[in-house]
C-alpha cells in the first residue's frame, strides 16, 4: 500500500474522492479501526453528511468494520456533533463521514472512541494508517452485523435539556445551513421552542450551490447578514458543512466574535458551577480569561486544536472550552464540540433579557482584533525566527512558544504567529486596544513575515 500520510491528517482522514480516497481504501480503514477498538468495543457507530460520496463510503467503512467481527450501528444522515452524541450516549466508538467545510470533491472520516473521546495521530490514527499501509490481517471468525438507529430526536431532546429556552421571550432567528447538515438538525432541535426560524439553504446538497459551507470566511455570511437586516431578525446563525461549528451575527447583521461567544457561554456555565475551569486557546481574546476570572472561574490556556482542548478538559475537569474558530466544547456533551449547544446558550441569554444581541455581546467584546491573516512563505522557520528576533529586542516584550510564537507587548497588545501543519503558510492573529493599534501592529509583523 502506498504512503497514506497525505490523507491521514492530525485529527482526521481527508482527501479527494476518486483520487486519494475510494471505497476499497475506506473499507480497509474500517477494518483497521475495528482492530483498534476491538478489545474494548463490540460495535461502532457510523454517520455521514450530505455529500454525494458519503453513503457509498460510509457503507464501505461499515463493511470493513464488520469484516473484523465488530457490529455497526448506522445512524445515517447526521451532523458531526450528532455522531458525538451517539458515541457518548451509546458508549461506543464512532466514525463520521464528512469533509466539513472543504469543497464538494473532498470527503473524510472523523473518528472517536467510546464516549466521543478523540482519535488523533497520537491516539490511534497513526496506528490505523500503519495497519492499512502494511495490509489489514484477515479475520476468520463470524462477521459483525449492521443495524440502523435513529438518534436525531434523542440528540435534540438532550440539547434542549441542557439549555432551557422555554421561559424566554419569542425570538426571530435567521439560520444559514449552507446546504449542510444544519438543514437536517435545526428543524428538530428548534421544534417547539419560542424561536421563529427563517431558514436559508436548508436543502441538503453536497455540491454547495449557494456558497462554501465555511462561515469563517466573511464572504460566506454575506447572505445571512442581508437576510437578518431584511426580516428584522433578533440574530443570525451560520453553520459549517457538518454543523459542528456555529457563527453568530447580531440584529444589525454584524458578526459576533467567537471569543465573545466563548466568554458569554463561559459565564452561563460558571453560573451553574461556580469556580469551574474554562479552557480557551491562545488566539482567543484577552477578554476571555479576564471575564472568566471576574466571574470566579479558572481560565486555562491551550494550544489551538480540538485534541489539545479535549485533553486539557479531561485533565482539569473543565466545564467548557472555546476556540476562536467557533468550536465550543462542553463537559456535559462528553467534552465534544457542538456549535448547536453554543447557539442555544446565546439564544437563551438573549431571550432572558429585553435588549438586542449587539448590546448583550458588547459586554464580552473588549478589544479590537485582526482576524486570522494567512501569508504564504517559503521558509516558515526562518520567518518565525526573524519576527521573534525583531520583537525580542523591544523592552518589556514577553514571548512564549506554546503554539508558534506569541508576543505580548507593554500596554496589552499581542499577536500569535503559527505555522500551518498542512500548507506553506504562517497564520497571524493580532489583538490590541483599538482598530488603529491593531492595524499598526499587523503591518509591522506582516512586513517581517513577507520580507
UniProtKB/TrEMBL annotation:
<dbReference type="InterPro" id="IPR016055">
    <property type="entry name" value="A-D-PHexomutase_a/b/a-I/II/III"/>
</dbReference>
<dbReference type="InterPro" id="IPR005846">
    <property type="entry name" value="A-D-PHexomutase_a/b/a-III"/>
</dbReference>
<feature type="domain" description="Alpha-D-phosphohexomutase alpha/beta/alpha">
    <location>
        <begin position="261"/>
        <end position="367"/>
    </location>
</feature>
<dbReference type="Pfam" id="PF00408">
    <property type="entry name" value="PGM_PMM_IV"/>
</dbReference>
<dbReference type="Pfam" id="PF02880">
    <property type="entry name" value="PGM_PMM_III"/>
</dbReference>
<feature type="domain" description="Alpha-D-phosphohexomutase alpha/beta/alpha">
    <location>
        <begin position="8"/>
        <end position="134"/>
    </location>
</feature>
<dbReference type="Pfam" id="PF02879">
    <property type="entry name" value="PGM_PMM_II"/>
</dbReference>
<dbReference type="Pfam" id="PF02878">
    <property type="entry name" value="PGM_PMM_I"/>
</dbReference>
<dbReference type="InterPro" id="IPR005843">
    <property type="entry name" value="A-D-PHexomutase_C"/>
</dbReference>
<dbReference type="InterPro" id="IPR036900">
    <property type="entry name" value="A-D-PHexomutase_C_sf"/>
</dbReference>
<protein>
    <submittedName>
        <fullName>Phosphomannomutase/phosphoglucomutase</fullName>
    </submittedName>
</protein>
<keyword id="KW-0413">Isomerase</keyword>
<keyword id="KW-0597">Phosphoprotein</keyword>
<keyword id="KW-0460">Magnesium</keyword>
<dbReference type="InterPro" id="IPR005845">
    <property type="entry name" value="A-D-PHexomutase_a/b/a-II"/>
</dbReference>
<comment type="similarity">
    <text>Belongs to the phosphohexose mutase family.</text>
</comment>
<dbReference type="InterPro" id="IPR005841">
    <property type="entry name" value="Alpha-D-phosphohexomutase_SF"/>
</dbReference>
<feature type="domain" description="Alpha-D-phosphohexomutase alpha/beta/alpha">
    <location>
        <begin position="155"/>
        <end position="253"/>
    </location>
</feature>
<feature type="domain" description="Alpha-D-phosphohexomutase C-terminal">
    <location>
        <begin position="372"/>
        <end position="446"/>
    </location>
</feature>
<keyword id="KW-0479">Metal-binding</keyword>
<dbReference type="InterPro" id="IPR005844">
    <property type="entry name" value="A-D-PHexomutase_a/b/a-I"/>
</dbReference>
